[in-house]
Each structure stands twice: as structure tokens, then as C-alpha cells.
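Hi, here's the filled form for the chain we discussed.

Project: internal
Contact: R.S.
Residues: 80
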Amino acid sequence: MRGPPGRRQDGPLTATSYPGTLSGTGQEQQTHMEVTQSWFVAKAAIALGPIIGFGTVDLIRWLLRRADWQRTSTAPRSEP
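And the returned structure, exactly as it came back:
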């Protein structure tokens, strides 16, 4: 199956062949997707950093409180 002379034959329909996508070679499009994905990962890490940090601090604080509670409840009491 050949197209008109001087015209490139159309390939299979893929997501990169829809209108509004980047023009260029497949390598250029792959590079753009990698850069976009890297930016998304960086932004997600920045956005989730405080949540993960505060959650870790709360967990450590809870564990320390629980350990202190167990330590004080098992310690012998001095009777006056």
C-alpha cells in the first residue's frame, strides 16, 4: 500500500498522531514526555514533602508518648 509520490506513508494511528500533539520525530516526543514526567514527579515530591514530614513527626511523637506511658505505668510506685 503506497501513497502518492513524494508523500510519506501514514503509519498506524497512535496517541502521538492526534491533532494538537507535538510535531517532530518520535525521539523528540519521547524526550518531551520524559521531561514532563520528571516535572510532575518533582512537583508531587515537593507537594507531598510536608505531609510525609509532619506524618512522620506525629508517628514518632505517638510512639514516644506510648513508650513513656508504658514506662510510667510499670514503674514501681513509692508508698509514703
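Let me know if anything looks off before we file it.
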